[in-house]
């Protein structure tokens, strides 16, 4: 079970995420209570070991700007939320980063992993980063295969049940590991990784 912990803002957050065994850590470089500026992101990315993927999260930012911020921060992957066309993915990929395509599962959503050149697909709630869950029965009509992550309102107390229901390749969380909006709870971060992997066993 691949686990991404998102919305990290401090060195201590990174240290705890890596120590807990996260496969990927996310830094929000877009409008959000969890936003970090590019200098902070660059400083935090330096603390991430090479075997952990450092992901920059973007929404509503043009592809050229995403690419610039990716290059300046040194992140290893870009997570794009919203209506980015295929060309935007290609432009961002030119920065030498891996791609995550984040979408809400609505009728007509292309759930083929790699359809836009992405390495991973993220199925999230309609309002990303809100901590709101979405109806997993939608997966019965359109289920991705391969490297896809389940996100949206996951937490220590529901991740195991969600994994059992949805059978994703990985999970992603932000709100559910916070003490307050934008402030990570290090205990919950550790517990989340354990809970997510316990369901996979
Ligand atoms: O966290 C945010 O504020 C955010 C802003 C813009 C795009 C995405 C954002 N968050 C991403 O949403 C998912 C799930 O979040 P949650 O667990 O439901 O809070 C995660 O990938 C965040 O990075």
From TrEMBL:
SUPFAM superfamilies: Ribulose-phoshate binding barrel. It catalyses: N-(5-phospho-beta-D-ribosyl)anthranilate = 1-(2-carboxyphenylamino)-1-deoxy-D-ribulose 5-phosphate. Pathway: Amino-acid biosynthesis; L-tryptophan biosynthesis; L-tryptophan from chorismate: step 3/5. Keywords: Amino-acid biosynthesis, Aromatic amino acid biosynthesis, Isomerase, Tryptophan biosynthesis. InterPro entries: Aldolase_TIM (IPR013785), PRAI_dom (IPR001240), RibuloseP-bd_barrel (IPR011060), TrpF_fam (IPR044643). The keyword Amino-acid biosynthesis applies. GO terms for biological process: L-tryptophan biosynthetic process. GO terms for molecular function: phosphoribosylanthranilate isomerase activity. Signal peptide: none annotated. Transmembrane segments: none annotated. Its EC number is 5.3.1.24. Residues 4-193 form the N-(5'phosphoribosyl) anthranilate isomerase (PRAI) domain. Pfam families: PRAI. The keyword Amino-acid biosynthesis applies. CDD domains: PRAI (cd00405). Belongs to the TrpF family. This is N-(5'-phosphoribosyl)anthranilate isomerase.
